[in-house]
Design goal:
It contains 7 helices and 12 strands. By secondary structure, it is an alpha+beta fold. Bound molecules: biotin.
Length: about 260
Protein backbone atom coordinates (compact mmCIF):
# COMPACT_ATOMS: atom_id res chain seq x y z
CA UNK A 1 0.00 0.00 0.00
CA UNK A 2 1.43 3.46 -0.85
CA UNK A 3 2.65 5.47 2.15
CA UNK A 4 0.10 8.22 1.58
CA UNK A 5 -2.82 5.79 1.72
CA UNK A 6 -1.66 4.07 4.90
CA UNK A 7 -0.90 7.47 6.47
CA UNK A 8 -4.42 8.71 5.72
CA UNK A 9 -6.13 5.47 6.71
CA UNK A 10 -4.32 5.48 10.05
CA UNK A 11 -4.68 9.16 10.89
CA UNK A 12 -7.69 10.73 9.18
CA UNK A 13 -10.50 11.57 11.60
CA UNK A 14 -12.91 13.30 9.21
CA UNK A 15 -16.42 11.93 8.90
CA UNK A 16 -16.71 12.02 5.11
CA UNK A 17 -13.86 13.78 3.27
CA UNK A 18 -11.25 11.22 2.28
CA UNK A 19 -13.13 8.32 3.89
CA UNK A 20 -13.45 6.81 0.42
CA UNK A 21 -9.98 7.16 -1.02
CA UNK A 22 -8.64 6.16 -4.43
CA UNK A 23 -4.93 6.29 -5.12
CA UNK A 24 -3.51 6.07 -8.64
CA UNK A 25 0.26 6.06 -9.14
CA UNK A 26 -0.32 7.82 -12.49
CA UNK A 27 -3.48 9.55 -13.74
CA UNK A 28 -4.28 11.77 -16.69
CA UNK A 29 -6.05 14.22 -14.38
CA UNK A 30 -7.59 13.39 -11.00
CA UNK A 31 -10.41 15.75 -12.03
CA UNK A 32 -11.45 13.31 -14.78
CA UNK A 33 -11.17 10.28 -12.54
CA UNK A 34 -13.28 11.97 -9.84
CA UNK A 35 -15.84 13.14 -12.39
CA UNK A 36 -16.38 9.59 -13.65
CA UNK A 37 -16.80 8.41 -10.07
CA UNK A 38 -19.23 11.22 -9.27
CA UNK A 39 -21.27 10.39 -12.38
CA UNK A 40 -21.48 6.81 -11.13
CA UNK A 41 -22.81 8.01 -7.76
CA UNK A 42 -19.67 8.12 -5.58
CA UNK A 43 -20.47 9.44 -2.10
CA UNK A 44 -19.73 12.96 -1.01
CA UNK A 45 -16.17 13.28 0.26
CA UNK A 46 -14.70 10.67 -2.10
CA UNK A 47 -11.10 11.69 -2.77
CA UNK A 48 -8.79 10.75 -5.62
CA UNK A 49 -5.02 11.13 -5.28
CA UNK A 50 -2.48 10.66 -8.05
CA UNK A 51 1.24 10.11 -7.58
CA UNK A 52 1.73 12.06 -10.78
CA UNK A 53 -0.58 13.45 -13.48
CA UNK A 54 0.10 13.36 -17.19
CA UNK A 55 -2.48 16.02 -18.13
CA UNK A 56 -3.04 17.99 -14.95
CA UNK A 57 -5.10 21.08 -15.68
CA UNK A 58 -5.50 24.46 -14.07
CA UNK A 59 -7.81 27.45 -14.19
CA UNK A 60 -8.31 29.50 -17.32
CA UNK A 61 -7.35 26.63 -19.63
CA UNK A 62 -3.82 26.30 -18.26
CA UNK A 63 -1.98 23.08 -17.60
CA UNK A 64 -0.76 22.03 -14.15
CA UNK A 65 2.60 20.39 -13.62
CA UNK A 66 2.34 17.37 -11.29
CA UNK A 67 5.71 15.74 -10.69
CA UNK A 68 6.16 13.07 -8.04
CA UNK A 69 6.50 14.58 -4.59
CA UNK A 70 3.48 16.85 -5.00
CA UNK A 71 -0.11 16.40 -3.87
CA UNK A 72 -2.61 16.09 -6.72
CA UNK A 73 -6.04 15.42 -5.32
CA UNK A 74 -9.68 15.86 -6.34
CA UNK A 75 -12.52 15.71 -3.86
CA UNK A 76 -16.16 15.14 -4.73
CA UNK A 77 -18.66 17.36 -2.91
CA UNK A 78 -22.39 17.56 -3.40
CA UNK A 79 -23.11 21.06 -2.06
CA UNK A 80 -26.50 22.64 -1.61
CA UNK A 81 -26.87 25.69 -3.85
CA UNK A 82 -25.71 28.53 -1.54
CA UNK A 83 -22.60 26.57 -0.53
CA UNK A 84 -21.46 26.24 -4.17
CA UNK A 85 -20.43 29.90 -4.18
CA UNK A 86 -18.30 29.35 -1.11
CA UNK A 87 -16.23 26.50 -2.53
CA UNK A 88 -13.41 28.76 -3.80
CA UNK A 89 -13.22 30.35 -0.35
CA UNK A 90 -13.26 27.18 1.73
CA UNK A 91 -10.82 25.31 -0.48
CA UNK A 92 -8.34 28.20 -0.39
CA UNK A 93 -8.77 28.54 3.38
CA UNK A 94 -8.27 24.80 3.91
CA UNK A 95 -4.88 24.89 2.19
CA UNK A 96 -3.96 28.25 3.73
CA UNK A 97 -4.63 26.93 7.25
CA UNK A 98 -2.75 23.68 6.56
CA UNK A 99 0.33 25.57 5.38
CA UNK A 100 0.13 27.98 8.30
CA UNK A 101 -0.03 24.94 10.58
CA UNK A 102 3.39 23.92 9.24
CA UNK A 103 4.74 27.27 10.46
CA UNK A 104 4.97 28.82 6.99
CA UNK A 105 3.53 32.29 6.29
CA UNK A 106 1.36 32.03 3.18
CA UNK A 107 -1.14 34.29 1.45
CA UNK A 108 -4.17 33.76 -0.75
CA UNK A 109 -4.29 35.31 -4.21
CA UNK A 110 -7.90 35.76 -5.27
CA UNK A 111 -9.66 33.54 -5.83
CA UNK A 112 -7.73 30.55 -4.58
CA UNK A 113 -4.05 30.41 -5.40
CA UNK A 114 -1.82 30.03 -2.37
CA UNK A 115 1.45 31.93 -2.47
CA UNK A 116 4.52 31.96 -0.28
CA UNK A 117 6.70 35.06 -0.69
CA UNK A 118 4.83 35.87 -3.91
CA UNK A 119 5.49 32.42 -5.40
CA UNK A 120 2.75 29.90 -6.06
CA UNK A 121 2.73 26.77 -3.94
CA UNK A 122 -0.84 25.62 -4.59
CA UNK A 123 -3.46 25.93 -7.30
CA UNK A 124 -7.12 24.99 -7.02
CA UNK A 125 -9.54 24.14 -9.81
CA UNK A 126 -13.24 23.74 -9.10
CA UNK A 127 -15.44 22.05 -11.68
CA UNK A 128 -19.13 21.18 -11.52
CA UNK A 129 -21.41 18.44 -12.76
CA UNK A 130 -24.83 19.75 -13.77
CA UNK A 131 -28.18 18.01 -13.92
CA UNK A 132 -30.93 20.06 -15.59
CA UNK A 133 -28.78 23.16 -15.13
CA UNK A 134 -28.38 22.60 -11.39
CA UNK A 135 -25.10 21.65 -9.71
CA UNK A 136 -25.34 17.98 -8.72
CA UNK A 137 -21.71 17.70 -7.68
CA UNK A 138 -18.52 19.75 -7.52
CA UNK A 139 -14.99 18.49 -7.89
CA UNK A 140 -12.41 20.38 -5.85
CA UNK A 141 -9.03 19.84 -7.50
CA UNK A 142 -6.04 20.78 -5.37
CA UNK A 143 -2.42 20.72 -6.47
CA UNK A 144 0.29 21.46 -3.89
CA UNK A 145 4.02 21.59 -4.57
CA UNK A 146 5.48 19.66 -1.66
CA UNK A 147 8.71 17.69 -2.06
CA UNK A 148 10.35 18.83 -5.26
CA UNK A 149 12.55 21.61 -6.53
CA UNK A 150 10.39 23.91 -8.64
CA UNK A 151 13.60 25.41 -10.06
CA UNK A 152 14.11 22.21 -12.07
CA UNK A 153 11.04 22.95 -14.19
CA UNK A 154 11.61 25.92 -16.52
CA UNK A 155 7.87 26.56 -16.99
CA UNK A 156 7.41 27.36 -13.28
CA UNK A 157 10.95 28.21 -12.09
CA UNK A 158 10.95 31.67 -10.53
CA UNK A 159 7.13 31.71 -10.26
CA UNK A 160 6.57 28.77 -7.94
CA UNK A 161 7.91 27.34 -4.71
CA UNK A 162 7.42 24.14 -2.74
CA UNK A 163 6.87 23.35 0.93
CA UNK A 164 10.17 21.45 1.14
CA UNK A 165 12.03 24.47 -0.26
CA UNK A 166 10.44 26.64 2.43
CA UNK A 167 11.02 24.21 5.29
CA UNK A 168 14.46 23.03 4.23
CA UNK A 169 13.35 19.39 4.49
CA UNK A 170 10.81 17.03 2.97
CA UNK A 171 7.56 16.11 4.72
CA UNK A 172 5.04 13.31 4.23
CA UNK A 173 2.60 14.17 1.44
CA UNK A 174 -0.04 12.34 3.51
CA UNK A 175 0.43 14.83 6.33
CA UNK A 176 -0.45 17.69 3.99
CA UNK A 177 -3.42 15.79 2.51
CA UNK A 178 -4.68 15.04 6.02
CA UNK A 179 -4.51 18.74 6.95
CA UNK A 180 -6.34 19.79 3.81
CA UNK A 181 -9.12 17.18 4.10
CA UNK A 182 -9.63 17.96 7.80
CA UNK A 183 -9.76 21.74 7.31
CA UNK A 184 -11.95 21.41 4.21
CA UNK A 185 -14.51 19.31 6.04
CA UNK A 186 -14.50 21.70 8.99
CA UNK A 187 -15.09 24.70 6.71
CA UNK A 188 -17.66 22.91 4.53
CA UNK A 189 -19.71 22.25 7.65
CA UNK A 190 -19.70 26.01 8.35
CA UNK A 191 -21.04 27.14 4.99
CA UNK A 192 -24.34 28.17 6.56
CA UNK A 193 -22.36 31.16 7.88
CA UNK A 194 -21.16 32.67 4.58
CA UNK A 195 -20.17 36.07 5.98
CA UNK A 196 -17.73 34.48 8.45
CA UNK A 197 -16.17 32.35 5.69
CA UNK A 198 -15.81 35.27 3.30
CA UNK A 199 -14.24 37.49 5.92
CA UNK A 200 -11.65 34.82 6.85
CA UNK A 201 -10.91 34.30 3.15
CA UNK A 202 -10.48 38.04 2.56
CA UNK A 203 -8.31 38.36 5.68
CA UNK A 204 -5.90 35.75 4.28
CA UNK A 205 -5.67 37.50 0.95
CA UNK A 206 -2.53 39.32 -0.14
CA UNK A 207 -4.55 40.88 -2.93
CA UNK A 208 -6.76 43.26 -0.93
CA UNK A 209 -5.52 46.84 -0.66
CA UNK A 210 -3.13 46.46 -3.62
CA UNK A 211 -3.18 47.96 -7.04
CA UNK A 212 -3.65 45.09 -9.47
CA UNK A 213 -4.20 44.21 -13.07
CA UNK A 214 -6.91 41.65 -13.73
CA UNK A 215 -6.56 39.67 -16.90
CA UNK A 216 -9.48 37.71 -18.28
CA UNK A 217 -9.33 36.39 -21.80
CA UNK A 218 -7.88 39.12 -24.00
CA UNK A 219 -8.93 42.00 -21.79
CA UNK A 220 -7.16 43.50 -18.81
CA UNK A 221 -8.32 46.04 -16.29
CA UNK A 222 -6.36 47.89 -13.60
CA UNK A 223 -7.50 49.21 -10.27
CA UNK A 224 -7.31 48.94 -6.51
CA UNK A 225 -8.42 45.54 -5.18
CA UNK A 226 -10.79 46.96 -2.61
CA UNK A 227 -12.78 44.08 -1.12
CA UNK A 228 -14.50 40.75 -1.60
CA UNK A 229 -18.28 41.07 -1.78
CA UNK A 230 -20.89 38.70 -0.36
CA UNK A 231 -20.86 36.64 -3.57
CA UNK A 232 -17.09 36.12 -3.31
CA UNK A 233 -16.37 38.43 -6.25
CA UNK A 234 -13.40 40.79 -6.22
CA UNK A 235 -14.40 44.46 -6.10
CA UNK A 236 -12.01 46.67 -8.02
CA UNK A 237 -11.95 50.47 -7.57
CA UNK A 238 -11.12 51.96 -10.96
CA UNK A 239 -9.23 55.20 -11.51
CA UNK A 240 -12.45 57.06 -12.41
CA UNK A 241 -13.79 56.22 -8.93
CA UNK A 242 -16.30 53.63 -10.12
CA UNK A 243 -16.21 50.01 -8.98
CA UNK A 244 -16.17 46.85 -11.03
CA UNK A 245 -17.05 43.38 -9.80
CA UNK A 246 -14.67 40.69 -11.06
CA UNK A 247 -16.16 37.22 -11.37
CA UNK A 248 -13.14 35.40 -12.82
CA UNK A 249 -9.66 36.23 -13.97
CA UNK A 250 -6.02 36.29 -13.14
CA UNK A 251 -4.93 38.93 -10.66
CA UNK A 252 -1.43 40.31 -11.12
CA UNK A 253 0.09 42.74 -8.62
CA UNK A 254 1.41 45.95 -10.15
CA UNK A 255 5.06 46.27 -9.06
CA UNK A 256 5.83 49.15 -6.75
CA UNK A 257 2.21 49.61 -5.70
CA UNK A 258 2.68 48.39 -2.13
C1 LIG B 1 -4.57 26.49 -11.10
O1 LIG B 1 -3.74 27.01 -10.36
O2 LIG B 1 -4.80 26.95 -12.23
C2 LIG B 1 -5.32 25.27 -10.61
C3 LIG B 1 -4.47 24.04 -10.57
C4 LIG B 1 -5.23 22.81 -10.07
C5 LIG B 1 -4.40 21.57 -10.11
C6 LIG B 1 -5.08 20.40 -9.49
S1 LIG B 1 -3.99 19.02 -9.27
C7 LIG B 1 -5.33 18.00 -8.88
C8 LIG B 1 -6.43 18.37 -9.83
N1 LIG B 1 -6.29 17.67 -11.08
C9 LIG B 1 -6.07 18.51 -12.11
O3 LIG B 1 -5.92 18.17 -13.30
N2 LIG B 1 -6.06 19.77 -11.66
C10 LIG B 1 -6.27 19.84 -10.24
Amino acid sequence: MPDIVSYLENNLTTSFIGKELHYLPVASSTQDVAREMADRGAPEGTAVIAGTQQSGRGRLGRSWLSPRGGLATSIILRPAMPAVHLLPAISALAVFRTIKGLGIAAGIKWPNDILIGGRKVCGILIEHGLTDGIVSYSIIGIGININFDTGLYPEIAGLATSLSAQLGHELPVGQVALGVYTELEDLYLQTEKPAAIISQWAAGMDTIGRRVKVQSGNSAIEGLAESINGSGHLVLRLDDGSTQEILAGDVLPIPGSG
